[in-house]
Design goal:
Spore Coat Polysaccharide Biosynthesis Protein SpsA, Chain A, 2 domains, single chain, about 15% strand, alpha/beta, about 45% helix
Length: about 375
């Protein structure tokens, strides 16, 4: 599958601004791929630190550095890189992440074997602050579409894209979608092209501490515009109060009260009802997503005691939910003890797991 140096199969786009701390490892992780028929296009967006010197220290001829004369931001920088790319496939990479050695091999093989798929993402494992979490995104196209109502379902730096499809539609990043340019692109593409996530961790994704809460708020606000548009397509009349309810449910920032979880249950039921009328989303996958958010809402309301437990089971949203017995037992114990979510989220998990383990062992339940 090797092509000439002037016509690589994969072009990897990496935009960077003042990334001296992690850029070397990010670049090395691409150059060290088991799949070698690639070019790495690095767009230096006016870095003022040691980034440029680090980039020029690499002697690999597969690297091409584009230096912006003004700071353009991520979307415009990626658009420049896209125009310069020569590959049949476009891969993304961030300046502070690490691609595992077989990432591109898995993704190229998948797209070669599935010509109906345009975008291929992967699961990721977090590094840095609160590292070690595995983000298991939905795999199938219809599930990914349903997930978009609540969250982005694609890790941007993990994707491999079939270039011809986007070139034909002129579908590249919108400059006005700062911080959610990828989310907007995936939603737009999903209306016509298929998306798939490989169920393997093939990228290490760096997360940062609470010093970036302001940035997180900006991402949430920008993402709300996309979520609002998707909900309006279902025929739901959106206003600020409804959007706030949806956001607080998705990100678990609500104040857990009886009224709040009652409103959340009614809201999720409305989403399902409107989809039955419109038929936009796969019914089974949307039901799965609403059940998941219903469980998370009630689990986050354990300070209400057994009301949260009983109300959870009284709703038909709980029907068909598939959870480990230990998860349900932990949920019940928190309700029984009226544990406030802000206390048990930050409480030592070893203590809780140990208690659940002893109870499960006594009741002869399978423990995971």
């Amino acid at each position: 599958m090797n092509t000439s140096a002037n016509n690589p199969l994969v072009s990897v786009l990496l935009a960077v601004h003042n990334g001296e701390r992690h850029i070397a490892r990010a670049v090395q992780s691409i150059l060290g791929q088991t799949f070698t028929d690639l070019e790495l296009i690095i767009i230096d967006d006016c870095s003022t630190d040691n980034t440029a010197a680090i980039l020029h220290s690499f002697a690999d001829e597969r690297i091409r550095v584009i230096s912006n004369t003004t700071n353009l931001g991520l979307a415009s920088s990626l658009n420049h890189g896209w125009k310069a790319a020569r590959g049949r496939y476009i891969a993304r990479m961030d300046a502070d992440d690490i691609s595992l050695p077989k990432r591109l091999r898995y993704q190229v093989d998948y797209l070669e074997q599935h010509p109906e798929v345009t975008i291929c993402g992967t699961w990721v494992k977090t590094v840095g602050f609160s590292g070690g979490e595995v983000w298991q995104f939905p795999l199938e196209h219809e599930h990914i579409k349903a997930h978009f109502l609540f969250h982005n379902a694609i890790s941007h730096p993990s994707v491999l894209i079939r270039r011809d499809d986007l070139d034909a539609e002129d579908m590249i990043y919108e400059d006005g979608r700062q911080r959610v340019e990828d989310y907007e692109l995936w939603v737009r593409l999903s209306r016509k092209y298929k998306i798939h996530n490989i169920g393997k961790v093939l990228l290490l994704y760096r997360v940062y501490d609470t010093a970036t809460l302001q940035k997180h708020r900006a991402v949430v606000s920008a993402g709300n515009l996309i979520r609002k548009a998707l909900l309006e397509e279902l025929g739901i009349e959106m206003n600020d109060d409804i959007m706030q309810l949806h956001e607080q449910m998705v990100f678990r920032t609500f104040n857990p009260t009886e009224e709040c979880i009652e409103k959340t249950e009614a809201w999720l039921q409305l989403i399902l009802e409107k989809n039955r009328e419109k038929g936009i989303y796969d019914r089974e996958y949307l039901e799965y997503e609403t059940r998941r958010h219903w469980y998370r809402t009630c689990k986050f309301s354990t300070n209400l005691g057994l009301f949260a437990w009983k109300f959870f089971w009284s709703s038909n949203l709980s029907q068909g939910i598939d959870l480990y017995r230990t998860h349900m037992l932990g949920f019940y114990l928190r309700c029984l003890l009226r544990m406030h979510p802000k206390k048990w989220i930050f409480a030592p998990r070893k203590l809780l797991r140990s208690a659940v383990y002893r109870i499960c062992k006594a009741l002869d339940l399978y423990y995971v």
